[in-house]
Amino acid sequence: MRNERLLRMATLMVAFYGLCVSSAFAGESSQFKLSSLDVSLAADGLDEEEAASTTMETTTTETTHFEWVKEAKAAVWPGFLVGMDGFGQFIEPVGMPFYFEDPFIKSDMRLVYIYHKIPGSSQLRGGKVQHVAAQIRVALTERLQFIAYKDGYSWVDAKILPESEGWNDIGIGLKYALYADPDEEYILSGGLKWELENGDIDTLHGSTQELVPFISAAKGYEGFNFMGTISGRIPTDDDLASYGLVWNLHADYKVCDWFYPLVEVHGIHWFSDGERLPLNIDYLDVSSIGSQVDGRDFFSAGLGFRIEPCDWFSFGATYEFPLEEKSENIQDYRFTVNSVIRF
Hints:
alpha+beta; Porin
């Protein structure tokens, strides 16, 4: 049974990977055509600068870095802390921050706050959950990034549970850029995350460890930016947590230099039951509580924005709501706030 669940999860992830790679090869073909046009223009007697102005105008932008970051890169090796430039026109996603991993290789810190309202019609009989966390991402090379994606503190107030607070599990991982074409505004990355079991049981953490393989892609087009991630959830003890698959989609548009309205859609599918709690709901993207959720799904959408007052700082927020009956899961609505400090 466990092998069957892993096979279903792997099949979905491979299908998503194949779709992304197909898009990458399409972009590579377009890049070849553009390069051929440059050569043709040069052959007609235009110099390199004139040829560049005659061809299509690129929308890629370089990322601005602090001086100490540039000095560290020069002192260590290419790409250290700086990562991969050429994707400065993209913004970071906001919703489901523990699983929605963007494909970019860079260094930043993200301060996250989540206010999650539990519906009174759910099995938890209403209440609220609040989370604060600080995510750290460090570019080790131009293509490799270290991720500290989960930590922080939670306050849980569910009506059928004692009110409690405590530390979240810690999650770390690595991400690698598999394909990147700044001229075509396309990047595809993959990686593996590892969530520990150090959190407090009172806040429904600390039950078991979890491995999270993921694939993430982004594509820009005439001021629009699109992003998608698919992640597997593989617990080390399937009695205490459930196998699952999480997918996230993001679209935004650059209205001006500092304002991006955005929309996001999120989904979770569970492949197994746990034996920890006799409930048919799970803790969504925050944790897994080992309940009876085999074959169930969760869908939600988020509307929001991101503001970039300067090159090194941005602020994003979304209002998220379920795309199903509120009694089916434990989300009435959710506010997510995400501040990014780029290095």
